[in-house]
Amino acid sequence: MSAPVFRRVLLKLSGEALMGEQNFGIDPAITTQLAHEIHEIHQLGVQTGVVIGGGNLFRGLAGSARGMDRATADYMGMLATVINALALQDALEHAQVPTRVATAIEMRAVAEPFIRRRAVRHMEKGRVVVFAAGTGNPYFTTDTAAALRAMEMKADVILKGTKVDGVYTADPMLDPAATKYDDISYLQVLERGLKVMDATAISLCMDNKLPIIVFNLLTPGNLRRVIAGEPVGTKVRA
Fold this sequence. Notes:
There is one protein chain. The protein is an alpha/beta fold. The chain has helices at 28-43, 60-65, 70-94, 116-124, 142-152, 186-191, 199-207, 222-227, and strands spanning 8-13, 47-52, 99-103, 112-113, 128-132, 157-162, 167-168, 180-181, 183-185, 212-216, 234-237. Strand 1 (8-13), helix 1 and strand 2 (47-52) form a beta-alpha-beta unit. It is globular and about 50 Å long. The two termini are 29 Å apart.
């Protein structure tokens, strides 16, 4: 097995990734598969943080579009990410990976509050840290939370796990002529309106020269290949 090229990584998962073939909720088979993938890189000594979305349970923007107060809808979405984080923690601990959930909204009965130095210490001690409740603020997505936490943790890279194998010129599910980028700059992503992460997250990464690798997380072994430096997915950088 190749030596890892990254020492510390931030893995960004969408809530939808946990649904599997379902239309809603959490598929235990998917959380088990994700836990196995993370276990593989954990064994290589890679310090791992995870930011997880909540779109499989509740999406703030969708609630807002149906007439809810935007801030209230966003807080509900943050609570959905906590449910997902606890599900992933359970799967990781079944895979013998020590895990902590750190939430931006205090709820001490189920998770510890996010404190930057404590989270860094957990990672140094070999624990996976799952960051829940986004940034703790409405109007910010979990993409932005991932960029923020990656910077706070001094991660080497953001690994954006998706259902497609990289960044394409158009949605490959809808446009068979769409072609894949192996490498693309932050500015090109912004100028072409590519759906990698939202503009705030991309701008944060660009300002801090933090690379993003977009890859298909549902292909077994892909996470380990990315960590080993193999040409998997699309790299977004300066």
